[in-house]
Amino acid sequence: MIDLHTHSLLSDGELLPSELVRRACAANYRGLAITDHVDSSNIDFVIPRIVQAVEEIGKDAGIKLVPGAEITHVPPRLIGKLVFRARALGAKIVLVHGETVVEPVAHGTNSAAIEAGADIITHPGLISEEDAARAKDAGIALEITSRKGHCLSNGHVARIAEKTGAALVINTDSHAPEDLITIEKARIILLSAGIPEDALQRIFQNSEKLINKVLGSG
Questions:
Q1: Which helix (H) or strand (E) covers residue 215, if one does?
Q2: How far apart are CA 162 and CA 168, in angstroms?
Q3: Is this model's pTM higher than 0.90 or not?
Q4: How far apart are CA 187 and CA 197, in angstroms?
Q5: Going by DSSP bridges, is the β-strand pair 93-97/64-71 parallel, antiparallel, or unpaired?
Q6: DSSP H helices in 97-182
Q7: CA-CA distance, 97 to 170, in Å (whole number)?
């Protein structure tokens, strides 16, 4: 399992980065991104600490680790500025908290994430066909999620991605130990979203390609 969306206690997760990584290793993960929530108030605090933790933990982890961030609930006009700032602070993967159907995310967030060149739009909700096509052209992945509530629109995201050719990845949005999933659970979630069996491997490969790209290893 390669999971490019998890949270530690540097935002609202329950685990230290070191325990999150250790539990991911124990669950047979092959790759993990720590992507705590950030906005203008904490971006300078959170990202350097994730970067430091990943640098030190990574020497012993035995899996690919990526320092990242999830820009969360900021006005769309600020997203481009914060994506740039996150990368300057050392985030190798930058997610934007998309327009999930279960939170009052500002309209226009999905579109702003695409314009900003984020790596993944997380739980993009009822993303429009136009935005999905733009994400495809920009090489930005859309997320299928195992997260309760956010997963309600998985079927819509899967259908729009199939229609437009946008790349999909599957992540957990983990906040607690029990949120980490096995590859078999990931397969069930993808199939439940209406994605055919013969397309699953391509989605797993999208995560593999992305982690190799951001780590400069593929």
A1: helix 197-215
A2: 9
A3: yes
A4: 8
A5: parallel
A6: 109-116, 129-138, 154-164
A7: 14
If you search the block for the tokens 């300078």, which residue do you land on? 44
CA distance 121 to 140: 7
- 212 phi, psi to nearest 5 deg: -65, -40
Phi, psi dihedral angles at 165 (to 5 degrees): 85, 10
Question: What's the half-sphere exposure (Cβ side, CA atoms, 13 Å) at 176?
Answer: 3
Residue 174, beta-bridge partner list: 6
Residue type, 66: V
Q: Which amino acid is at 148?
A: K
User: DSSP letter at 105?
Assistant: P
- Count the neighbouring beta carbons within 10 Å of the beta carbon of residue 218: 10
Answer yes or no: are the C-beta atoms of 127 and 121 closer than 8 Å.
yes
Per-residue pLDDT of the chain (218 residues; tens, 9 = 90+): 999 999 999 999 999 999 999 999 999 999 999 999 999 999 999 999 999 999 999 989 999 999 999 999 999 999 999 999 999 999 999 999 999 999 999 999 999 999 999 999 999 999 999 999 999 999 999 999 999 999 999 999 999 999 999 999 999 999 999 999 999 999 999 999 999 999 999 999 999 999 999 999 75
